[in-house]
Automatic annotation (TrEMBL):
Gene Ontology biological process terms in this record: cell division; cell wall organization; peptidoglycan biosynthetic process; regulation of cell shape
Biological classification of the source: Bacteria, Candidatus Buchananiibacteriota
Cellular location(s): Cytoplasm
Highest taxon of source: Bacteria
Natural source organism: Candidatus Buchananbacteria bacterium CG10_big_fil_rev_8_21_14_0_10_42_9
Similarity section: Belongs to the MurCDEF family.
Keyword set, alphabetical order: ATP-binding, Cell cycle, Cell division, Cell shape, Cell wall biogenesis/degradation, Cytoplasm, Ligase, Nucleotide-binding, Peptidoglycan synthesis
This protein's record includes keyword Cytoplasm: yes
Domain Mur ligase C-terminal as annotated: residue spans: 322-442
Mur ligase central domain location: 118-299
Pathway per the UniProt entry: Cell wall biogenesis; peptidoglycan biosynthesis
This protein's name: UDP-N-acetylmuramoylalanine--D-glutamate ligase
Amino acid sequence: MKRFKNKKITVMGLGLHGGGLAVTRWLAERGADLTVTDLKSKSELKESLDKLKKYKNIKLILGRHRNADFVNCEMVIRNPAVPNNSKYLALAKKSGAVVHNEASLFFSLINSAKIIGITGTRGKSTTASLLGNILKKHGYKTLVAGNIGTSAMFDNYYSARQADFVVLELSSWHLEDMHEHKQSPHIAIITNLFPEHLNRYASYSAYKKAKAHILAWQSKKDMALINYDNNDSRQLGKLVLGKRIWLSRKFLPDQNAIFIKSGNVKLRLDGRESNLLSLKIMPSGWQLMLANYLAAMAAARILNVSPYSIRRGIKTFKGVPHRLEFIGDKDGVKFYNDSAASSPEATILALRALGGRTRKIILIAGGSDKKLNFTNLAKEIKKFAKAVVLFQGEGGTKLRQALKRVKMNSPIKTNQTSMQSALKNAMAYAKPGDIVLLSPACASFGLFTNEFDRGRQFVGTVKSL
């Protein structure tokens, strides 16, 4: 692509999650004159840097940022961790550089008419993966990518160009730069909204505003599928510029909606009501992920997928790694990996899904704090957990304090500095019939590379028992 040949581009934040690496490689292969700058050291970035060795058109500035790399460039690609008020971004913009993140650059290159964008606080990956599976079962060439952990957008650029549909999981950070470039997907899905990332945003209102950007540049021909049963996502319904379709477990008369009625999932669109499937074929635990399933079914039907293919897609769906993933049973103790649960609300859902009338869960939680409130989670832990093991970090400390306030009298082991020690202590409390659940309710920063590394370490340690 000649538009990037010899173009002076600064990549701000190579990172270890894959998105920064993918866009850097993609630009390097198109002949861009690249500067990669990251506050991390060479040793910290070794895994990513090893994959860039063959490119001769990349200059590395590590352990610091320099003004010159932002004044003398035509474009900046910023990592999600870069704050909006960064002085280096301000310098670049003042000097006339265009600022993108991976999502806004991707949207500028791919026809948005075939993009289904999914955002929300919880359930994005499940919704995106399920919808992708349904579309594939129907015979559509489909790419699932984005903030999903295993499929960076620019690692899949050619697949996206050839696909019938592109399903993207979009974070609030993705949406910020997309908003600057006036970009929205043809079909937007909002799964729900809860307080999250308050270490990044000044308030919950600011976080919700970032999520709402997914709707801002849609046209009357576009569509938005929004969770009606979640109060904060429902409030965004008034911002829809195109066709709005509610997702709800309730019967909603006289509105475009997908809902449950008389034991069936029904879709009403433009006054016509159709039956999609019976709840009898839904997998176990569907109640806790209902909005995700409804969103995937509604989007598929809008894209002319048959009810038969929808049912096939649901029946063959394997779930998503690190989302309440059953790892195995050892000596009568069951192990679940819910490492993607990085907020209190997510861990509450996991406890309710696995908890019974007796307290049988040994919860492994804690880590880095995102300035979230743990009070409601502490009450649920008291109800469902027989013991708690907490990772070192401010999040773990805050959760310990919240547990004290609700007068939890079950054992609490704190300041774990590795997955091995956390699991060893969890096993000391476990008996046949119990469940060891990794559902941290906190970020992974510090002890782990990211939530996927945290989950992989848990799975690996369990399998080595």
